[in-house]
Design goal:
Elements: H1 7-21, H2 30-34, H3 52-72, H4 88-94, H5 96-115, E1 125-128, E2 133-136, H6 137-164
Antiparallel strand pairs: 1-2
């Protein structure tokens, strides 16, 4: 595929990568924020906040949902689905390594799917189960980036509390 045909798609990919493990304009990436935390700390809920594991699991659900939307043209999850925020004991039973591996695989799969798209894909529509309507893939990708940044900020607060314990 010519670079001329997918500049905007490549921009989305570079933003996804920067937020995860690069140097985003907003400051630290997920990799930087989580660096140095122990496996046990990933399940701690300081000051009644969510745990790191809960947030990463939540992000994974929506990554996998984005992948499904790209592959099939429709989603399957809503904000109210039980998988959106799994109970702490379910997360601990999975273990941090499995949660992180699933998240990393989702990120890699999403980027691989996007790499095969040209910019016209962004204007195509899918059916969003949660918002009950048709939306463009560009709207979805903008949302994923916004969602990632929102939770990155939340993780920064959680990690600050964890380091004070």
């Amino acid at each position: 595929m010519s670079q001329e045909n997918n500049r905007l798609v490549q921009h989305f990919i570079s933003q996804l990568q920067a937020i995860q493990n690069g140097k985003p304009w907003i400051g630290n990436s997920y990799a930087k924020v989580l660096d140095g935390l122990s496996e046990d700390q990933m399940f701690v809920r300081p000051a009644k906040l969510k745990s790191v594991a809960a947030i990463i699991s939540h992000l994974t659900l929506w990554r996998e949902e984005a992948i499904l939307k790209i592959q099939s043209g429709t989603g399957s999850k809503t904000d109210a689905c039980p998988e959106n925020w799994l109970p702490d004991n379910d997360l601990e039973a999975q273990g941090w390594q499995a949660i992180k591996l699933r998240y990393d695989r989702g990120q890699a799969q999403l980027i691989a799917l996007l790499n095969d798209k040209d910019d016209s894909f962004l204007q195509q529509e899918y059916y969003d189960t949660d918002f009950k309507g048709n939306y463009s893939y560009q709207w979805m990708l903008d949302g994923i980036l916004q969602h990632d940044i929102y939770h990155l900020g939340q993780l920064g607060v959680i990690v600050k509390h964890l380091k004070m314990l």
